[in-house]
Design brief:
about 180 residues, alpha+beta, 3-stranded antiparallel sheet, 3 helices, 8 strands, about 35% helix
Length: about 180
């Protein structure tokens, strides 16, 4: 398989892991907000006179705004620029992680319930995008998971081919580690 830039794929009989870079398409929105936050922080911490005796001081309000809003704003900018999407399977469990290093979200699912994968078009009120649909219809829940909304076409096709290969390999947990 041809790996797209920034992708990794590891497989062995017990587990597999595939990871692609997934920068969000909303980068254009986060950058101006970070610039605005930097301007407010510079004003609050460098330019404005500090009067701790006056609780309604503009500089104290601006510095509180900079402290409360800045951390999530910078985290969202880092996630939108350097985020990764990882799908792995180990011991009959599947995991989908949207992460930046150790930080991020993890969504578990039963690997044995995964029946198929396909590319779909998600239509919103103001946007359309392509994603991957994981059909978990082998379980009683009949649920579907949608992943890969912000990734490139090349990465999405790579994920589709890897997931189809791994579904065809029929990864099921083996009792006591025996080949049954």
């Amino acid at each position: 398989m041809n790996l797209p830039p920034g992708a990794t794929y590891d497989t062995n009989p017990e587990l597999f892991r595939v990871s692609v870079s997934s920068p969000a398409p909303q980068n254009w929105l986060a950058a101006p907000l970070v610039i605005l936050w930097i301007a407010i922080a510079v004003y609050a911490f460098v330019i404005a006179p500090k009067r701790p005796d006056d609780p309604t001081s503009e500089s104290l309000i601006a510095s509180a705004f900079a402290a409360l809003i800045g951390i999530p704003l910078i985290a969202s900018l880092l996630f939108s620029r350097f985020g990764r999407l990882t799908i792995c399977s180990f011991g009959g469990k599947g995991y989908i992680r949207a992460h930046l290093g150790p930080l991020g979200t993890r969504k578990p699912f039963e690997w044995s319930a995964l029946a198929s994968v396909r590319e779909v078009e998600l239509r919103g009120r103001f946007s359309r995008s392509r994603a991957i649909e994981l059909d978990l219809s082998r379980s009683r829940a009949h649920r579907r998971l949608y992943i890969g909304k912000g990734i490139s076409d090349e990465s999405r096709q790579f994920l589709l081919s890897v997931l189809e290969t791994e579904i065809n390999n029929d990864r099921r947990p083996r009792p006591l580690g025996l080949d049954a």
